[in-house]
Amino acid sequence: MDATVGIAPIGAAGRQRVARRFWRRGPQGSDLNWALAFLVPYTAIFLLFVVYPVAYGLWLGHRPASYQALFSDPIYLKTVVNTLIYLALGVNLHLFGALMLSGFFMRRNWRVRSLLLIYMLPWAVPAIPTFIAIHWMLNGEWGFLNNLLYALFSIDGPSWLNYRWLALGSVVFAYIWKWMPFWTVIFLAGRMAIPQELYEAGAVDGATGFRRFVHVTFPLLANLYLICTLLSTIWTLGDFNTVYFVTGGGPGLSTHVLATLGIRDAFEVANPELGMAAVMSALPLLIPLVIVLMRKLARNQVQL
């Protein structure tokens, strides 16, 4: 007996209605199936590339013996000093310079706007080729900078990368040159958000030039400046490319920061636990910065 007896055939229009109903609602409420189809890949990627590396890193760095070996290493203390200098000079100088230059680029002049496009190039170009080029420019024997000094002033330039403080200063300069354009644009956007009426009211009260910046601009940008400082400090603490490609940690391992020392200990010394301990030793500084940043952002969101 034919099982299809008594069932009306479905025409083309009926099949289209069924298909549309399937894609809108799905059989048996398949909204959950669609949600799982999108959620499962993202969850797997998150577990594979975020949770697992972090958990494995914490497991590698949990042994107290690794920290005892790290703290007894004479390079570590020098590395901590380098990291603090790198943070203090790099973050503060490039943010303050960005704040000042944002005022210059506020001018409504096509020449200034054209100059802004050129000024953005260091941030736009890839970081690794940039730092490699700076490394070769600072070569003491035949680098571009020393050749330029000799051609213009008949001066034999120093060996920039052969002395600790010159090399560390070169790293700070390269970092500032690379990242100051980015923060300049951030502060430029903040300045543009300030109502022009406030400047006009300040001008009526006699606040022009420096006084207008002190009494109008900076108080309104202070919150943004603090958030940028916290965020830049967090990023700089984990910066690896600048030191590694400009100085390589030299001369004599004297310009390492915590990020590069951890990679060196993990791969060059072939001691992953020691390398992870070097990276984990930055947590007492990193965690308070993250907490302050999140509270600051949450407070601003509540105010908005």
User: What's the CATH class of the largest domain, please?
Assistant: Mainly Alpha
CATH H-level superfamily of the largest domain:
MetI-like
Number of helices: 15
When the domains are counted, the total is: 2
Helix content: over 70%
* Poorly predicted ranges: 1-8
Secondary structure: number of strands? 0
DSSP strand (E) fraction? under 5%
Output mean pLDDT: 86
Characterization of the model:
This protein is 76% helix and 0% strand. It folds into 2 domains: 1-60, no CATH class; 71-303, MetI-like (MetI-like fold, Orthogonal Bundle). The radius of gyration is 28 Å and the shape is globular. It is mainly alpha-helical.
Jot down its keywords.
0% strand; single chain; mainly alpha; disordered N terminus; 2 domains; MetI-like fold; globular
Short synopsis of the structure:
It contains 15 helices and no strands.
List the helices and strands and how they pair.
Elements lengths: L11 H13 L6 H30 L3 H8 L2 H31 L5 H10 L1 H4 L2 H11 L6 H10 L10 H29 L3 H9 L5 H28 L3 H6 L11 H11 L3 H9 L2 H21 L1
Helix pairs in contact: 3-14, 4-9, 4-11, 9-11, 11-15, 13-14
